[in-house]
Amino acid sequence: MRSPLPFLLAPALLTPCLALAAAPTEDKPADKFEEIEHGFYMDAQIGALILFSPKANANSGVSPGLSIDVGLGYDITNSFSLGLFFLGSNIDTPSGFLSTNDRPGDISAFTIGLLGSYAFWGHPDDNGIDRLFLDAHAGVGVSLMAPKNIYKSVDILVRAGIGIEYYTRLRHFSVGADLDFVFGIKNQGAGLLIMPNMKYTF
Hints:
The protein has a single domain, classed as Porin (Beta Barrel), CATH 2.40.160. The chain has one helix and eight strands. The chain has one helix at about 5-20; strands at about 40-50, 60-75, 80-95, 105-125, 130-145, 155-165, 175-185, 190-200. It starts with a helix and ends with a strand.
């Protein structure tokens, strides 16, 4: 005669399984992410530099040039960032830039410095996310100048200006433009930087 034990144990084993199958399942919480990334970033700029004459010969006009700027920084808050900038410039100087009888030529400069930026205004998109910003920024750096017979070979460059920045829907990318006033303290040279900007935040 077959033992009745398996038939007696079967309901006891099946009951917990049926209870688990019938229990309601909870929805998995949706992953949350920031619409705009903040943190470490890298940016690149290329644009125009308009250099005014040194103070000693301020009537000799302006000199156009090209500048390339690469920056590395960190967003300390959503509004304030601090970073390093590496600025290379080449300026085509006309005759009379330094004196009334000098020849036209080129000036090159490479600057390493520190730049702080504060976003003081933001505008939301259709979803209420601030994507368009205006900022004020300022910085100082050490410039290596060439050729040495035109400017002092080492100068202190200060820069300050305003910028516009738009954070795209590709979370990590933003685009914008900066307008900066620059001034070389030792060489008494002033100029303007007009620089479109692209930034990637990690």
